[in-house]
Structures are given as C-alpha cells and as structure tokens.
Design goal:
about 50% helix, alpha+beta, homodimer, four-stranded antiparallel sheet
Amino acid sequence: MADMIAKKQEILESLEFRHATKEFDQDKKISESDFRYILEAARLSPSSLGIEPWKFIVVQNSRLRERLKEVAWGAQGQLPTASHFVLILARTIKDTKYDSDYIAHQMKEVKKVPEEVHQGMLVRYRSFQEEDFHLFDNERAILDWAGKQTYIALTNMMTAAALIGIDSCPIEGFDMDAVNKILEEEGLLENGRLSMSVMAAFGYRVKEPRPKARRQLDDIVQWVE
Amino acid sequence: MADMIAKKQEILESLEFRHATKEFDQDKKISESDFRYILEAARLSPSSLGIEPWKFIVVQNSRLRERLKEVAWGAQGQLPTASHFVLILARTIKDTKYDSDYIAHQMKEVKKVPEEVHQGMLVRYRSFQEEDFHLFDNERAILDWAGKQTYIALTNMMTAAALIGIDSCPIEGFDMDAVNKILEEEGLLENGRLSMSVMAAFGYRVKEPRPKARRQLDDIVQWVE
C-alpha cells in the first residue's frame, strides 16, 4: 500500500518533471538503449482500428536539421541541441482508408486476422470512417484522424522518457507546407503515403523550467453521478 | 545501472499490459485515490500553446451510460462494466481561436503571462493557427487540432493507469453526431464550447487478452544520419 502510494507519486513527479524543453545540453547524448526504449514506447502505443498510421523519422543529420530550422520557428533551440530529433508522420488516405492495401496488410500480416473476420471488419471500418466520424468530409479530415493517433505515440515517447529522467519537447511550431515540401524533396514521404504531423525533440535540459501552470482539477473535470 | 534497466523493463511491460479492454470486472472498482491519480495524469499533460483545450466528463450515472450505449457500438461491453467511464471533450473554435476569451484567461490567469508578452504571443498564435497549420480552412480543422491535444491527455491517463495495474480502453467506436446530441441535451457542452472527442473506460480486466501485435521497429522508424 505504501509502495503503491510512492509509485503513483513517482509517476506524477515524472509528469511534473516533463516540460517543453527549449534547449538541450549538447554534451549529453541519450544512450542507444535508452533511445530504443523511447521508440519502443511509441511502437507499443495503441491506435484506432489498430492500424498504427505513423512513421518516426529520427533526424540526426545536421544538414537536414538546418533545413528544418529555417521553417520551424518553434524548434530554433531544439534542432541544434537535441540529442535526438524525431519527425512523427501520419499516414495519408492512401493508407488509412478502410479498403487500402495498407490496412489489409495490417490485418492479415501484422494482426493475423482470419480472412472471414477481416471482411466483416471492413464493413465496420467503412461505416465508422464514413458515417460515424465523417472522415471523408474534406481532404484533411482523415489525415487529422491519423494525426490524432500519432499524438498517442508522441505522448508515450515523452512520458516514457520522463520516467527515466530524459527531457523532451513536442513541437507544432513549424510551417506545415514547407516541412512537407522538404520531406518530399528528401524522399521521405513514401510517395504521398506520409504527411508531417508533429515533431519531438529529446535530450537533457540545460536549465530548470518555471513551475508548471495548469487549471485545477475541478475546472477540467465534471462528474455525472 | 541494473536498476535503470529494470525500470525501463517495468515501464515497457506496463505498455504491453495495456490493451483495449472490452469488458471489466464489475466487482472491482478503482479506488477514489487511484482514479484521482489518473485524472492528475490528464491534468498534467501538455497541449499546444499550453491552452488545455479539453474537459473530462466522468459518467457514473447508469441512465446516461445507457443512452450512450445506444449510439456507441465500440463501447457495448465497456459502458455497462467499467469502473469509471470518461468522455473526453475538445474545446471548439469559440475557445481555441487565438483571440478567444478562453485563451486570454488561460494566458493571464493560469499561466500568469505579463500583458506585453501576451500581446506578442497572440501575434504568433494567429500566424501559427492561420498560416502554419491552416486551422481555419474548414469548420472541423481547428476542432481536430484541439482533438489531437485531447489524445495526449487520453494517453497519459491510460499509461498512468497501466503503470499501477489498472486497465483501460480508448474508444472511437461511436456515432459522433448522436453523442454530441445527447451531450447537448444533457447540458454538458457549455453552450457549444465543447464537442465530443474520444471516450476512455477504466477498470479491471475479466480475462487475459491475446498477445499484442505490432509492426517491427524497423518498419516504423527511419534514421536520417
């Protein structure tokens, strides 16, 4: 019992520890095994329909980091200093529409779903995407839906990192079109099957952040009893 | 060193432990302090621009759970059995547009940002929302953007739960319009300032899941070195 209280405390302290780190210590690199652990946290993340509509590009190349820096105002301190800098990409409609080859592969080869079950799931997936969530309403709706799933992986990476004392920063501060253009030129978008979602920098802080400011629990939680 | 390896192992095992629990043990309720800890994990989550564009409605009322069950095919087993059932709502454009009263309140009262800094941030927020992320392209774009942030909180709730042996299930399997209609009728949408994003059920499993199936790391990670 005392153990469990201490454990919860430790986890909440990790979530307090995590802050949007603007600049990292260039002399401290994340070890290969620790970074692999962070990637594993992404890999094990859940996603809608179990389709893992994501890709993680680890940008260690300084030339590409420089290119990104020109179009990412929110990553000015992080791109030059992060031990590891990750671009999290979302899969596009080519891969995420219910009848795509990608989903068929995911069901048959990754999840090992039997063929007859797979067919029934497709019927459900179609009505879910089309009728329940209106994902074909406009071009970006289904991409934003895949994007939501990438935020699950993003979060598990940051939280897993914080739990072992590694800092991170989630970054939306960039020109979306310009980043996609760079990635296209670098041949990283799998012929239009991927699109930029969110960036995440990892490393070790150089200075302590201000205390975390959040709304109170009563302000964000409502009970219907 | 051995400690750290054990710790990473324990965290990855928690992520393996977590699975989309379809049915919970009705005789086992999550303690008040444990559930408060799960809500704290949501509260401490980061969000774009730090605006916390979310609300968590804990549905313990059986009448409302019944109403939701009629329009949530993906929550048929969870709604009647979950110890705690949470609706995660996203804030709408009324609260998330750069010049909203909500963001002004968040900056001034929650983050305690000085007035002159606040004005500079608004300029940046406008260009971010309008030019970088094109959030005013269509009606749902800015709502989906807030929705992405809610997935950060969702993930931290599930992961924090798993770390102390509590099961959960993220749920998108529902008719979005029908759920919003119910919430509107129940007076839970703050006059159009909130909209349904995703559901999350918490409790204790009744049976062991199949082993987790995921793509291999090499399949989802690309290094640019």
